[in-house]
Write a structure and sequence with these properties.
Order of helices and strands: HEEHHEHEHHEEEHEEEHEHHEEHHE
Distance between the termini: 67 Å
Radius of gyration: 21 Å
Largest sheet: 7 strands, mixed
Helix content: 25-40%
Amino acid sequence: MMKKTVVTLLAVLAVVFTVNQNLFAGGSKDNGAAAAPAPAGKQTLVVGATPVPHAELLNLVKADLAAQGIDLRVIEFTDYVTPNVALLAGDLDANFFQHIPYLNSNAEWTEKLISAFGVHIEPFGIYSRSLKSIADLKDGATIAIPNDPSNGGRALLLLQSNKIITLRAGVGLEATVRDITGNPKNLKFRELEAAQLPRSLQDVDAAAINGNYALEAGFNPTRDALIIEGADSPYVNIVVVRKGGENDAKIKALSTALRSAKIKDYIAGKWTDGSVVAIF
């Protein structure tokens, strides 16, 4: 009996270990990338993405790539760090969630990863549960902003462009709260991980939220944002690969599929409010 119990326990542990080996750390959801080998005669392309709109757009081109012998597997992530970690580790062939200022915010990413192509922009906005207008910000109000350098700077530049704060001259895209030189309303800033910002709205007066997280939280950016970037935003969302992979035939096929009239029409038809804008 003891011997049978030990054998059973070892079998269970082996299964648990195998399952864990196929999961990425940091809040990812497997949409088939680690499940089974590619069908006979097909190549596998594993792409990590945040759910909206990135994974949604990827799932729309699965059939197009399958017709070319490419089995597209989409892994969903709920944070902004793990997709680059997984790409560096070789667990992904590409990822789709970030813009170039974010990619350039980490020296290792800049050294080893590269943008393969751009697809769309998601205008960045300031949101509130309690305010109807940015003019309603009271003295001493608290605004939550992303804690990563590129998106935090993006939030501060948006506030400056609306004459709410003033930043040190020439500070550029990576401005921080330490670069604020003018703050007439004595605003306080709370720096949080980007995915937490929608939930922070119950505790702060306003929050600067990336477009994809605003969409997931049920916001209509052009209707609900107190202030929002224009459609000329430089923060194009890109597909990123390890350096040298940008010329891979599978990545070229993915570029053609994601930058097609089908996807452009889908974006224009679904996000009529301008919350997602194709750049091709």
